[in-house]
Write a structure and sequence with these properties.
274 residues; mainly alpha; two-stranded antiparallel sheet; 1% strand; globular
C-alpha cells in the first residue's frame, strides 16, 4: 500500500491548475473527445441537410418551433453522452488503470486531484455543448436572422447548469467504484432508467412532485422554450403532470452539484491505492 501522509500534503492554486491542465490535455488527445465531437457534428450536419431539404414546419414555421425542436429535442441526449464520456470513469479509471499511483505520492492533497479532474471534465464537456450551441445558432440565424430569442439563451444556460450537476453526480459514482466499466454502466443505468422510472412512479401512482430527482430538474431546459411556461401542476391532457419552476429547478441542480460533489470527494479521500 502506498503511504499517503496527508499532513505533509498541501493544496495550492498552482497544483490545481496543473492537474486541470494535464487532465484536460488527456481528454483532448483521447479518442473519446474526438468521437464525441464527431457525433455532435455529424448529427447536426445531418439535421442541417434534412431541414434544408424538407423545410419541415416543425422546424421552420417560427423561431420558437425551431429552437424547441432543434435544441430542445437533442440537448438532453448530448448531455447524457457527454457526462458519461468525460465523467463516468474519471476517478475509477485512476484505480483501474493505476495512473493514480503516479499522483498520490506527490505532495498534493487528493482533493486537488479530484477538483482538478472535475474542472478538466467540465471544460471538455462545455466545449462539446458549445459545438451543439454553435450549430443551433448558425441554423437559427440562417432561417430567422439574428433574432435569437432570449428564452433559447436561458435554455442554453440551464443546460450548462445541468452539466455541472450531472458531472458532479457521475464523479460521485466514479469515486464509489474502482472499476471504470462498473461506474460507467451504473451511471448510465441511473441517468437513463432509474431516475425516469422513479419519476413515473412518483407522479403517476403516488401523485407526488418528484422534486428530489435530477431528471425532474432537467425539465427546465425544455420547459423554458415553451410560451407560456408550463403550469407547475396540471391534470390535463396527462394526469398528474408536474413541471419544476425555474427557481425550483435551479435549486435542485445546485443541491445535486454540492451534495454529490462533497460525497464523491469524501469517497475518493477514503480510498487507498493498493
Amino acid at each position: 500500500m502506498i503511504a499517503t501522509d496527508t499532513k505533509a500534503k498541501v493544496h495550492t492554486p498552482a497544483q490545481l491548475v496543473t492537474v486541470t491542465k494535464y487532465s484536460f490535455l488527456n481528454y483532448i488527445r483521447s479518442r473519446r473527445f474526438l468521437v464525441m465531437t464527431l457525433i455532435v457534428a455529424l448529427v447536426n450536419v445531418a439535421m442541417t441537410a434534412v431541414v434544408a431539404y424538407t423545410r419541415s414546419p416543425a422546424f421552420v414555421s417560427s423561431t420558437g418551433a425551431f429552437y424547441g425542436a432543434w435544441w430542445g429535442g437533442f440537448v438532453g441526449l448530448f448531455l447524457i453522452l457527454t457526462v458519461v464520456f468525460f465523467g463516468g470513469d474519471a476517478i475509477s479509471g485512476e484505480f483501474q488503470n493505476r495512473t493514480g499511483y503516479f499522483l498520490v505520492p506527490l505532495p498534493m492533497r487528493k482533493s486537488t486531484i479530484y477538483i482538478g479532474k472535475f474542472f478538466a471534465a467540465l471544460i471538455a464537456s462545455s466545449l462539446i455543448l458549445a459545438v451543439f450551441f454553435a450549430f443551433t445558432i448558425a441554423n437559427g440565424i440562417y432561417y430567422f436572422g439574428a433574432n435569437v430569442p432570449y428564452i433559447f439563451l436561458e435554455s442554453a444556460f440551464f443546460a450548462w447548469v445541468v452539466l455541472l450537476a450531472a458531472l458532479s453526480f457521475t464523479f460521485m459514482f466514479s469515486s464509489l467504484f474502482k472499476s471504470a466499466v462498473v461506474s460507467v454502466l451504473l451511471t448510465v443505468i441511473m441517468i437513463i432508467f432509474v431516475f425516469n422510472i422513479i419519476q413515473a412512479i412518483s407522479t403517476t401512482l403516488l401523485n407526488i412532485e418528484p422534486w428530489f430527482l435530477l431528471s425532474y430538474a432537467v425539465q427546465i431546459i425544455t420547459d423554458v422554450l415553451v410560451v407560456p411556461y408550463p403550469a407547475h401542476y396540471s391534470s390535463f391532457p396527462i394526469p398528474n403532470t408536474w413541471n419544476p419552476t425555474i427557481p425550483e429547478g435551479l435549486a435542485i441542480l445546485a443541491g445535486y452539484f454540492l451534495l454529490c460533489g462533497v460525497i464523491g470527494l469524501i469517497l475518493f479521500e477514503r480510498k487507498e491505492f493498493t
